[in-house]
Each structure stands twice: as structure tokens, then as C-alpha cells.
Amino acid sequence: MSHSSEIFLAKSKIKAADLQHRRTINFNMGRYNASVPKGKEQFDNLHLAREQAKNVKWRAIETLDKQLEEFELQLNKKGGKVIWAETAEEAIAEILKICKAKNCKTLVKSKSMATEEIHLNKAMEENGIESIETDLGEYIQQLDDEPPYHIVTPAMHKSKEDVARLFARKLNTPPDYTPEQLTQVARDILRKKYVEAEVGVTGANFIISDIGGVAVTENEGNARLSCAFPKTHIVVVGIEKVIPSVTDLALFWPLLSTFGTGQKITSYNSIITGPKQPGEVDGPEEMYVILLDNGRTNILKNPAMRESLYCIRCGACLNACPVYKNIGGHTYGTTYSGPIGSVITPHLRGMNEYKHLSFASSLCGNCTEVCAVKINLHELLLENRKESVEEGNTSFAERAVWKIWRMACLNRRMMNVGNGSLKNKVVNGLFKDWKRNRADLHFSQKTFNQMWKERFKK
After folding, report:
1. Terminus of the chain with fewer CB atoms < 10 Å: N or C?
2. 411 φ/ψ angles, rounded to the nearest 5 degrees
């Protein structure tokens, strides 16, 4: 058992028994579940829209090298610069190089899972640069020294009372402040940071190859301010976020909004195609786009898993997953939690260390059912399990037990040996580690084969 697996099991046991956590999550997800059906009403044929989106992403991923080269070519024409980062360390080194060249003391950052993946805030802090989260949910999590809990809603696990207590402790606000008052406090603090910051960092929901553009969708306007106010704009984005054409946004923006938050479209939608051009009064003087690999090509070269790169990070699979709703986002111990995280993390960070995530699933298929781009998530979880075994990431005892189990299942006489009581004693006695976090197995006193013969003696 890996170290990560031991931590996962320990945290799961605690969180699953936390009824207050479950009440908060059920309340917040209940609001999401009430909104999504209304958002879906905008589609005349939702099934067809999802199928078309999957086909567009299939085309983009199958021609990924050409799409990225076209993106770089078009962005360069507008004065932007593309940096290719194979690892998180390379991405951090490039960002630090830019920040030092600009004598950066303060960096503002909009919501971005890619920057969470490379641990940007920690790296900036270690180098004496103040890195400020400007998304309200991310800002709340930064104040509480916690990573995001959810791909879309980082502070989903916190109630309004939790946030009020946090602000009172960290910002000396009255503990009875309403959500509106707390939001105003955060706004007043963050608005000053936009003006002070030398560098702004954003992620990207999509990168558009035919125009060399970066598409960002949001509800607060903080991403626009993060990329427009500072003189230098840095985009950190995974290479899989590419779409072939700007016209594809007409499909992807509504899908992302509906499946992410239940909206028909988010409040702010921006397409950024480079730094400030001659004659323009707004925008940064320099723009860099860091194309992050960090294990994505491991998935790309695996035909069975390549489909997972279609993900648009809407978070719908997390909201649908019974495991996620019971153990929460932080228990996974990874940047990407829930079903999609369980699929991609073993390939991004190592199968041996993170194979347990693919086993932490009921395989109910609800994640596949709600996926905006129809990724067969539950089948990919099974594929991960298969690959884990084929790579030898199992113990001798586990392999021996399954071999015996297989022999017994293929031999009727062995299956009929002993009554249910004997089988219960043997299995529950032998598989102590397996049943440590599960209920006891209870075998029937008679096998189906025996009951059939007794019923139909002729």
C-alpha cells in the first residue's frame, strides 16, 4: 500500500463520518442540481450538442501537435510569446524568470487549476513575491491556507458562517457579517492589489488555435482585471485545452456554463489574442502563454486513456459522484479530485502511488452520464485498474488470493465446499486488510447451484 493510499483511507474514514460536512455539501450541491436543468433548457438537442463537443475535442487531441503549432504562430503575430514547459518545475522557472526581469513584488492571479497543479503560490512565496488569489472562492481558500476543494467552486465545503468566522479571524471583520458584506470586504482589498501588481497570471478555459487566442470564462470579472491591469500577463494552461476554431466557443461556452454552474452563459467571457496593440489604450504590454505538459503526453500516447484529455473542467462528474460527496475534495490529496481526477492523476503523478484513486469508485456510471463531453469515465477507471495490475502494482498476497478466487469460481465443486458459515469465517478471517474499511461479507448457507438442485430434483 502506497503512502498516498494510506493517507487517503485515513482521511476518508474521518470525512465520511463528518455529518456537518455532508450537510454543507448536500446544501451547496442541491442548489447546483436545481440550476442545471434550467441551463439545459437552452439546448434544443442536448445529446447532439454533447456529441458534437466530443467530436471537436477528438479532432483537437488527435491533431494536437498541429493545433498547438498553429496557436503559437498566430499568437506570435500579435506580439505574444509561447513557452513550452514539459514539467511543473520548468513552468515555475520560466515564471520566476519573467517576474525577476520585471522586478515583480506583487502578483495577482485569477482562478486556475493549472497554477494549482504547479503550486505557483508556494513558489512565489519562497521567492519573496506576494501572490494574491483574486477569485473569491480561491481567496477564501488562500486565507484558510487550504487548496481548492472543487474544480469549479473552490470553497464549496464552507458555509457562510464558516467564511464569516474565517474573515473575522484573518481580516478582523465583525463575525456577523452577511455574505454581501464579506464580498465587499474582499473586493476592497483585491482592487488595490490589481493596481499594485507588476504581473498578472490567469489560466485558460480554452486556447483557440486558428486565431492564437486565449478564452477565459468567469462570473466576477477578476480574470479580466488580472490580465488587463498589470503590465505583464502570463497564461498557464494545459496543452489539452486547445480547440480548433473560435467558432467552437459558441458550443463550448454554453456547455461549460450549464454543466459547471447551471447558467446559460457566465457573466464575463473574454478572448485575449496578445498584448496591447498600437493605438489601443487597455491591456498588458507583454503576454506570455506557458503551454504545460506535466504528464499530459503520458495520457496522449495511451490510446485507451486519450479520451480523458477531452475534459473541459466543468466539475459535473464531481457533483454526481457518491464517493466525492461522502469524502470531499481534499481527501483525494491531488489537484484534480472526483472521477476525472481519479482517471488522470495516476498518469500525471505515477500509477504506483495513485492507483488507489481508480479503485475508490462505485462504478455506478453517473459520472459518465453527466459528462458535458461524454467521456466514458467509469470505463476509464476500469482501464486504470487493469493497467495497474498489468504493470505489477500489486502485492504477492493479492495476486495469490485472486488466483485462488478465480480457480474456485471456475470449479463448481470448490464453490460448493463448506457451508456459508465456514466461508464467512475463512473470508472474513483471511481478508482482514481488505475488510478493514468494509462491512463483513455474509455468504448464503447454500450456493445457488445447491438450491437449484433441491428445487428441481428431477
Report:
1. C
2. -125, 110
Segment 399-455, tens digit of pLDDT? 887 888 888 888 877 777 766 777 777 777 777 766 777 777 788 888 888 888 888
Q: What is residue 440's DSSP assignment?
A: P
- Ranges for all domains in the chain classified under CATH 3.40.50.10420: 42-294
The model's pTM: 0.91
Distance of CA 8 to the CA centre of its chain: 17
Contacts of 210 by beta carbon, 8 Å cutoff, 6+ apart: 70, 74, 244, 245, 246
The DSSP annotation for 237-279 comes to EEGGGEES-GGGHHHHHHHHHHHHHS-SS-SEEEEE-SSPPTT
Report CA 232 to chain centroid distance, whole Å: 27
What the block records as the C-alpha cell of 238 is 494545459
The pLDDT confidence band at residue 458, using thresholds 50, 70 and 90, is: low
**Would strands 268-272 and 213-218 be described as parallel, antiparallel, or unpaired?**
antiparallel
- Cell output for 236: 498557464
Report residue 204 as a C-alpha cell. 485558460
48: burial class by Cβ within 10 Å (0-12, 13-18, 19+)?
A: exposed
Fold of the domain built from segment(s) 42-294: Rossmann fold (3.40.50)
Sorted by sequence, the CB contacts under 8 Å of residue 347 that are 6+ apart come out as 295, 298, 299, 302, 305
Q: In 3-state terms, what secondary structure has residue 81?
A: strand
The pLDDT score that the predictor gives to residue 209 is: 97
Give the span between the Cα atoms of 1 and 429, in whole angstroms: 20
**Three cell numbers, residue 251:** 458550443
CA torsion, ordered 49, 219, 170, 197, to nearest 10 deg: 110
What string of DSSP letters covers 338-391?
A: HHHHHHHHHHHH-HHHHTHHHHS----SHHHHH-TT---HHHHHHHHHHHHHHT
